[in-house]
Amino acid sequence: MTSPAPLQAVDAPRIALVGATGAIGGSIAHALSAAGTPFAVIGRSAAGLSAAFQAHPLATPRVWNPEDMTSLREAVRGMDTLVYMVGVPYDAFRLHPRLMRAVIEAAEAEGVRRVLLIGTAYPFGRPQAARVDESHPRMPHTFKGQMRKEQEDILMEADARGALRGLILRLPDFYGPGVERSFLADIFAAAAARRRAKVVGPIDTPHEFVFVPDVGPVVRALLGREEVFGRSYNLAGAGTITVREVARQAFALAGRTPKLMVAGKTMLRLAGLFDPVMRELVEMHYLMTTPVIFDGSALERAIGPVAKTSYADGIAQCMAAARAG
Hints:
- This is Nucleoside-diphosphate-sugar epimerase.
- This protein has helices at 23-34, 46-53, 69-76, 95-109, 143-160, 185-193, 215-223, 243-253, 265-272, 276-283, 286-289, 297-303, 311-324; strands spanning 15-18, 39-43, 59-63, 81-84, 114-119, 165-170, 173-175, 197-200, 209-211, 232-234, 260-263.
- By secondary structure, the chain is of the alpha/beta class.
- The chain has a domain at 15-172 and 213-236 and 292-307: 3-Layer(aba) Sandwich (Rossmann fold).
- The strands form 3 sheets. Strands 3-2-1-4-5-6-10 form a 7-stranded parallel β-sheet, with helices on both faces. Strands 7-9 form a two-stranded parallel ribbon. The chain has a two-stranded parallel ribbon with strand order 8-11.
């Protein structure tokens, strides 16, 4: 990737990672730290922030209560740029627009100049093209997709009225070393533990996954370019791969033949009678049968070639982490 324009290094952070303790927040923190850029990390728990960022001396923790506007304003005060990646429980997606609206209100009140939203493929709904670029219609047919679309709209409406500059970076499903919230996570854990892996089927449909450590440098590059704001970009993975092939490679590294317990839509419905998260997966099962495959060419035109870890290397790193953990 070509080197972005350098961000000004200052004693006090001017970039804040909002909802920072997840896997993507860790990747962005690593990229900023590698560039010597101070940053704030905003989350609900002081202990959680301390545990997640103890290896990052350039990170300044800020605890917030996103339900309290005073707390919101204090958390973003003095910031120039927010990178927003707040997660909610899978059965509480109704909160996404409300939280985004509150953060935009606080950011506008405190003079925050830019907000970068880490988004998903959900707002596109069922893909209408083999490769989905930023011009693809956003026609979500699911509640979760509608909530994510509304979240995007709140940000870009603020951009349109001149309150701040907005930018959306949409990611496909992701995986990475130690990343638990991934459809692929149990494959690595099971291969390392010599047990059967639990996966969602069908498992022979080509999917796209982004390797989490690859995300941070992309965000870092975008933050160094003013001209990218006011737009959205799709980050494509390193090609496509099937769940079966991921399992084959992972189990082979453990010297084993894959053993899989595959849950289809019917099994998810049955599990959903007892587990609300499984019940919510039913709505999004279309992504397993008709996955969204991103066209990432606009992003590469904006920031140059994007370094992408091959699936073979990524799976090897995930297996090494699973064995160590």
